[in-house]
UniProtKB/TrEMBL annotation:
Species the sequence originates in: Sphingomonas rhizophila
InterPro entries: AB_hydrolase_1 (IPR000073), AB_hydrolase_Est10 (IPR053145), AB_hydrolase_fold (IPR029058)
Residues of the signal peptide: 1-18
Residue span, AB hydrolase-1 domain: 36-274
Protein name: Alpha/beta fold hydrolase
UniProt entry keywords in alphabetical sequence: Hydrolase, Signal
Length: 303
């Protein structure tokens, strides 16, 4: 299938021990200036950037199409156990180390598919943590961290819960559960508010939370000495400018780009919560101005 006449979209797959991972390669017309592997955000987020829990923005697909117009190839993926990768294990029985191993497999496949010498890792949201954890894999060109937290996930979740006044009745239970998981101990959901017991602290996801809470993105950023671009929108309600600044402070060699008015789904949105969340459902809305050029310029630069 061809987009405009500027890019070709091709199915891609990568074998791992648990099964086969699926994705999409988008190649520009002509020689690629660089190849970017897009690592998706948390939960059931697919290769297009959509999520059955309320996100229909197609941000990753739009990003791939727009980067192709700048001569940059992309590989977008479905995480193990989800969507096209449904046969590659249980998505709830996964660790950061598993995602790092999957990233390594995708790097090898992406190099073969595009002929690239090395692959850029673009992590969005939680995908940024995966990029940081994968940074020292072979054949990584560098990192692009988009809307990536600069604090451990437990701290991020705690602040997100506190920032919404509607969460006040469930906050004591949530904070107690977070403290336990951060300490490496699972929690009983008996008597817990259904919104927490069936969602955030569902027993099926607690092992993953215990694992991911151990990782400090700022510490990982400080340890990586390769090229790093940090991109953050000013109207992101999930990850703040302060997170991007924390990453940049941890790694002063990184380039920090703030995009005015960009929300968590990489599109322009106001700070008003209802209007901001509505943009998550708007596939037709374009990506925020400046996002694509910032990424394309960085990954295409001669070093």
């Amino acid at each position: 299938m061809f987009i405009a006449a500027t890019a070709a979209m091709l199915a891609a797959s990568t074998p791992i021990q648990a099964g086969t991972l699926a994705g999409t390669v988008t190649k520009p017309d002509g020689r690629s200036a660089a190849t970017v592997l897009v690592l998706p955000g948390s939960g059931p987020t697919d290769r297009d950037g959509n999520n059955p829990l309320g996100v229909k923005s197609a941000s990753y697909r739009l990003l791939a199409e727009d980067l192709a117009k700048r001569g940059v190839a992309t590989v977008r993926i479905d995480k193990r156990g989800l969507f096209g990768s449904v046969g590659a294990g249980d998505p709830n029985k996964v660790t950061i180390a598993d995602y790092v191993a999957d990233t390594g497999a995708w790097i090898a496949s992406a190099r073969k598919a595009t002929g690239a010498r090395c692959i850029w890792l673009l992590g969005h949201s939680e995908g940024g943590l995966i990029a940081l954890a994968s940074a020292k894999l072979p054949d990584v060109c560098g990192l692009v961290l988009v809307a990536t937290a600069g604090r451990p996930l437990g701290t991020v979740i705690r602040d997100q819960l506190r920032s919404n006044p509607a969460n006040a009745p469930i906050l004591p239970q949530a904070e107690a559960a977070l403290a336990s998981l951060e300490g490496g101990k699972a929690v009983s959901v008996d008597g817990m508010h259904p919104a927490l017991a069936q969602g955030l602290f569902n027993p099926k996801v607690q092992p993953y939370l215990i694992d991911v809470f151990r990782y400090d993105p700022a510490r990982l950023a400080a340890a990586y000495q390769g090229p790093m671009l940090i991109v953050q929108g000013t109207t992101d309600l999930q990850v703040g400018v302060g997170d991007a600044e924390a990453l940049a402070k941890a790694q002063p060699k990184a380039k920090l780009v703030k995009i005015d008015g960009m929300s968590h789904v990489l599109k322009v949105a106001p700070l008003d919560r209802a209007a901001n969340l509505a943009v998550m459902q708007d596939e037709a809305a374009p990506l925020a101005p400046g996002l694509v050029n910032s990424i394309a310029d960085f990954v295409s630069a001669k070093r």
